[in-house]
Amino acid sequence: GLSGGRPPRDDKFARVTQEDVQYFREALGAGGRLVTDREGLQAFNRDWLGNFEGATSVAVCPTSTQQVSKVLSYCNERCLAVVPQGGNTGLVGGSVPVHDEVVLSTSAMDNIISFDEVSGILNCQSGCILQALDTYLAERGHTMPLDLGAKGSCQIGGNVSTNAGGVRLLRYGSLHGSVLGLEVVLANGEVLDLWQSLRKDNTGYDLKQLFIGAEGTLGIVTGMSLLCPARPTSVQVSFLSCKSFPDVLHIFRLAKQHLGEVLSAVEFLDRESLVTALEHMPGIRNPLPDGTSPFYMLVETSGSSETHDKNKVEEFLAEVMSAGLLVDGALAQDTSQASNMWRVREGVTEALVRRGKVYKYDVSLPLAEMYALVEEMRERLPGDSIRVVGYGHVGDGNLHLNISDARGKERQEVREAIEPFVYEWTRERRGSISAEHGLGLMKAECIRYSKPEAAVRIMGAVKKMLDPKGILNPYKVLPRDVVHEGC
Ligand code: FAD
Ligand code: MLT
Ligand code: ZN
């Protein structure tokens, strides 16, 4: 899954010995889990896409911050490299070892600590599964401020560490706003307590922001405080088809105008995405009789008054129709229709993996030019086995460009037709080569397409300060030339 091949092992790192394993076993005590058998390790070594595979010989699953601290301070002392891992749903190869790094998994740290129904503030450990948190909050009239297709397996610590976006960012903003406090274990084992539950706190630099989106390179997030909104009681989902990408954008504009205060998601997918989802995901139905239009949209509102919200959506749809923008449209009549609409959109990711090899790109671009990238890519990659698909969070200016190859394995000629073209194209428009998935291993050497030299240099300095030996998630996020020696 890498254009330049896997980076060589940095031999400053020690190799795991039997004594190390024995130490981890004692540090975990009775509660934690240690995995050392080949079969059990497979799940920790291989990423969700099947693009990256490491060769760790040990996965450590602590239950408490103190255990994480013990394990890290030991690894730092021994100069053992460590990969933090949550639900392992990351899409850029950040969550799996590159070589023989120790995996530190948060999967056994899944306690909900407290929830305040007045303030909406949730405190929990980082291994809580996103969907489990949302179910817990639903019972208390609240909702998680983020939602994504991987909700059934991704963990909140992984979400924070990737600054995951997802389908409700349009409504609730990014985790940089929703996270009120964090507890982080630094590389040397020190516990950095930034675990506050305050809406407002302007006492100096806001250090917790550094760890949001750091992809495990600066510390291990162990606990957090999150601001959770009240759960909307009326959710309306509509699915539309239209003739062109400019029409998608026009519909987005009308959605903001007519649904502004209740709008909660504006997603799009092209016909190739829809077809892929319908072909490979049994049980998903096309919400519309129309399967031949080039573009589809999912527009969701979340409010507190069903009649009011339904009226508004109907007015919006009438407006879209009278503007001549709509080929076809459906408003979900019940939760099963609504969830089918969501499954079409969110099912594209898994459908692509089922179809064969996926080359996955996640870019932020100016809206007006966004879809031209998909069209140009199609011209560069003709052939029966290849399908170029575009979908994503159009309301946030985020395109997911995916090249699917039914032949199944990585091919150099395909990769070379995509890279560096896609990165150069994005840079020319001052876009971002990673809107929400992060850089991980896949794009560590590509950071300069989206960041100036001074920013990369400062990032290297921050890394050196917080992780002087460079043991945390090596080979990821930062390019090789700014990573200090260490050990
Ligand atoms: P992992 O994959 O385990 O780890 C991700 C990164 O964070 C790694 O670099 C890892 O080292 C680091 N990390 C994990 N836990 C910690 C911790 N406690 N402390 C420090 N570092 C840590 N992403 C989006 O942004 N938006 C989407 O809409 C979206 N949809 C997805 C849909 C599907 C079907 C899939 C498979 C993935 C999707 N993703 C999406 C990508 C992925 O789910 C997110 O990045 C998610 O936030 C990762 O969480 P995780 O627990 O699986 O983390
Ligand atoms: C999505 O929006 O579906 C996710 O980011 C996953 C993907 O890019 O496929
Ligand atoms: Zn996405």
Automatic annotation (TrEMBL):
It comes from the Eukaryota. One of its GO terms (molecular function) is (R)-2-hydroxyglutarate dehydrogenase activity. Coiled coil: none annotated. Residues 52-231 form the FAD-binding PCMH-type domain. The keyword Transport does not apply. One of its GO terms (cellular component) is mitochondrion. SUPFAM superfamilies: FAD-binding/transporter-associated domain-like, FAD-linked oxidases, C-terminal domain. Keywords: FAD, Flavoprotein, Oxidoreductase. It holds the Pfam family FAD-oxidase_C. Gene3D superfamilies: 3.30.465.10, 3.30.70.2190, 3.30.70.2740, Uridine Diphospho-n-acetylenolpyruvylglucosamine Reductase, domain 2, Vanillyl-alcohol Oxidase, Chain A, domain 4. Its cofactor is FAD. Its EC number is 1.1.99.39. It is an enzyme of class 1 (oxidoreductase). Belongs to the FAD-binding oxidoreductase/transferase type 4 family. This is D-2-hydroxyglutarate dehydrogenase. It comes from Ostreobium quekettii. The lineage of its organism: Eukaryota, Viridiplantae, Chlorophyta, core chlorophytes, Ulvophyceae.
